[in-house]
Design goal:
The chain is α/β, with parallel strands linked by helices. The chain is built from 12 helices and 8 strands. Strands 3-2-1-4-5-6-7-8 form an 8-stranded mixed β-sheet. Helix 8 packs across helix 10. The protein is globular. The model has no long low-confidence stretch (mean pLDDT 97). The protein binds acetoacetyl-coenzyme A and nicotinamide-adenine-dinucleotide. The site of acetoacetyl-coenzyme A has 19 residues, from helix 2 and helix 10.
Length: 287
């Protein structure tokens, strides 16, 4: 499969990442079908896309016609078989839970075209383990987009144990078509970026928990001291505290390192439904 020949992409999940990935593909001129389990989630995802494009239009960086054309390239459905049956590429962006992802891959595999590439946007889970649930594991690859997907330039490609070289080359060409810069990682816990970045977020939460400083001062220290665009606690709110907790536990279990123990405060906040921006409450409030 050549990345320039893609006619249709199916994006599974219309949350933070799925909606952003759908926008990126549609912006590159590709027809997209976005699938979620309820219409209300699809509507929320489409609203996020329209609002994001609206900001770009209001800055004079895109015409309203171009923004409308992008939106019109995205259709939505709750029907999984319908979503994937005509797709050349399926990108899964559902919650970071292996069991759930495997169940979905089994269904995808039954309905997808022979030549289709299947990709996961997983932050940390094993791509090789997911690939074992599809008929053609050589066509399976990790395509890790960063949040917010329309803005962040990186595409981390994860080569599973059985991913073919052709599929990796496809992923690199796709990155170019989408205006992203690819890096390639083997299937190791946390890959490259989260292996390095998650311990920073864990330490920031632990420092807050231990009363080292206020949340504002922790974030300011990293923004002004290290030139990070966001502080680690603001970033955790952007990513979603549930996603961070799943990722930290998943990588920690595999690396067996005490550095990867989830802070109690993080577990508590997730239990209370304080998941960050998506629930309007996290380390900060988002009224
Ligand atoms: N669609 C298209 N363009 C968009 C957009 C959208 N939805 N939203 C914003 N943009 C554009 C804006 O138009 C703007 O473009 P210009 O510079 O040309 O004007 C640019 O993106 C920046 O947007 P804003 O001015 O609105 O916002 P900002 O300057 O405050 O930056 C930010 C916001 C990009 C989020 C920045 O704060 C940032 O880079 N934060 C760090 C993000 C980060 O680290 N992400 C990684 C998270 S970890 C992860 O993703 C991996 C994982 O597995 C968990
Ligand atoms: P999210 O909670 O915002 O969205 C997940 C969406 O998937 C929800 O709308 C949910 O209803 C939907 N969903 C659940 N089961 C589904 C199914 N069977 N079929 C289709 N949709 C289903 O989560 P997110 O932050 O978008 O994360 C999605 C994936 O992307 C995770 O694997 C996560 O680790 C990864 N990721 C997240 C970030 C981030 O910053 N949040 C960055 C990179 C990668």
């Amino acid at each position: 499969m050549n990345a320039n020949d893609i006619k249709k992409v199916a994006v599974l999940g219309a949350g933070l990442m799925g909606s952003g990935i759908a926008q990126v593909c549609a912006q590159a001129g590709i027809n997209v079908v976005m699938r979620d389990i309820k219409d209300e989630f699809l509507e929320k995802g489409m609203k996020g896309i329209k609002d994001g494009l609206g900001k770009v239009v209001s800055k004079g960086k895109m015409t309203q016609e171009d923004a409308s054309a992008i939106v019109n390239r995205i259709e939505t459905t709750t029907d999984l078989a319908k979503a994937v049956s005509e797709a050349d590429l399926v990108i899964e962006a559902i919650p970071e839970e292996m069991k759930l992802k495997k169940e979905v891959y089994k269904e995808v595999s039954k309905n997808v075209q022979e030549h289709a590439i299947i990709a996961s946007n997983t932050s940390t889970l094993s791509v090789s383990e997911m690939a074992a649930s599809v008929k053609k594991p050589e066509n399976f690859v990790g395509l890790h987009f960063f949040n917010p997907a329309p803005v962040m330039k990186l595409l981390e490609i994860v080569r599973g144990k059985r991913t073919s070289e052709e599929t990796v080359q496809f992923a690199k060409a796709l990155a170019n078509r989408l205006g992203k810069t690819p890096v390639v990682s083997i299937d190791s816990p946390g890959f490259i970026a989260n292996r390095v970045a998650l311990p920073l977020m864990i330490e920031a939460v632990t420092a807050l928990e231990e009363g080292v400083a206020t949340k504002e001062d922790i974030d300011t220290a990293m923004k002004l001291g290290y030139n990070h665009p966001m502080g680690p606690l603001e970033l955790a709110d952007l990513v979603g505290l549930d996603t961070i907790l799943h990722s930290v536990k998943g990588v920690g279990d595999k690396l067996k390192s005490p550095r990867w123990k989830p802070p109690k405060l993080l577990e508590q906040m997730v239990k209370e439904g304080k998941l960050g921006r998506k629930t309007k409450k996290g380390f900060y409030d988002y009224p």
